[in-house]
Amino acid sequence: MKYATKLLHNGNEIDKHTGALSIPIYQTSTFKQDDVDNPPLYDYSRSGNPTRTALENTMAILEGGTSAYAFSSGMAAMSAVLSLLDTGDHVIAAQDIYGGTYRALTRHFSKYNIQVSFVDTTDTNKIEDAIKPNTKMLILETPSNPLLKITDLKACAELAKKHNIITVVDNTFMSPYLQRPLELGIDIVVHSATKFIGGHSDVLGGIVVVKDKDLAKQIYFVQNTLGAVLNPHDCWLLLRGIKTLKVRLDAEQQGAIYLAQWLKKQDFVKSVYYPGLPEHPGHDLHLKQAYGPGAVLSFEVKDINTAKKITARVKLFFTAVSLGGVESILSYPAKMSHASVPWKERQKLGITDELLRISVGLEDPEDLSMDILNAVI
Ligand code: PLP
Q1: Per-residue b or e along 349-363, where b marks 16 or more CB atoms closer than 10 Å to that residue's CB
Q2: Given this model, what pLDDT does residue 345 score?
Q3: Which residues of the chain have pLDDT under 70?
Q4: 245-376 to CATH, choices 3.90.1150.10, 3.30.230.10, 1.20.1250.20, 3.40.50.2000
Q5: 3-242: which CATH architecture?
Q6: Residue 195 bears catalytic tag
Q7: 180 is catalytic
Q8: Ligand 1 atom 15: the closest Cα is on which residue?
Q9: What pLDDT is stored for residue 259 in this prediction?
Q10: Cα 137 to the chain's mean position, in Å?
């Protein structure tokens, strides 16, 4: 079955009790039990809820996993994964990992004596050099944020397997439509479903997908124990978002390709970071491991005033944090996602004061390019 069909026909699309084409929102905290000696499938909504099950089963199929777990946000999903670690464990994480994951590792899980090394994961040798006897987890993001750097997922999975290290990929930027890390040997996929999966900037959610039965049991234990589950209404919103994932991303990606090529030709632009451009250093690798370059790109303008002018004057782009919605979003990493990273550190990472990131929505890309041009002149 082709992926477009799978998004709509995966065995979880119909309510088994009524035949409803939209899975009902089972807005209940608890379930009546007829026989306490034989507990029903659902007994309490933290432990399981039918709307959540439909979403979790759908996501498991779409990522090529065996089970998925839905959380109240992407960070709740990532925190559940980090909760698999024990005191004294060491983690290797991508240098330009999402800021929230960086904060969770350095300011929360560090309290449990979990150590972390941040590494340029685009170079697999650097990952190998960072491995210690107590390294238990490798956390990756490709393309990374905001410079869209590409990491070789298959090579990382092979290296980690040799050292008994669990591999985790934050697949938020791609969605399972464009990249399926489990198929490349990765152990755990995490999503901020707030982004492309929801797709309409109206819901916060997180998903963890695994293939291995033992890892599945451990994630379910954390989900049920710590309790950061996704509520039934938001599960329904994500189920609805999934139905249009392909058409949205196809159109948004076309817009991103148009804008990347247009931006390259503008005098006020110094560089464009987008894996869809042939000159992007990760272009070939990305297209080997993913099904498209996606709808997010970054560009560096000539000076800070131009960057500020664009953030203040664009009318069709919303200047905001987040991405993956039907409306185009422009963000300024130096002042938003990476504001807490010291200036010197940001320069080293290439996240300069002139860097802007855009998530392309469903507007006409020509209108979007004119919006940026009008903001500059
Ligand atoms: N991972 C990535 C790549 C993100 O961009 C974000 C949020 O921006 C998150 C994780 C965290 O997700 P949430 O905001 O849903 O908690």
Answers
A1: bebbbbbbbbbbbbb
A2: 80
A3: none
A4: 3.90.1150.10
A5: 3-Layer(aba) Sandwich (3.40)
A6: yes
A7: no
A8: 74
A9: 98
A10: 18
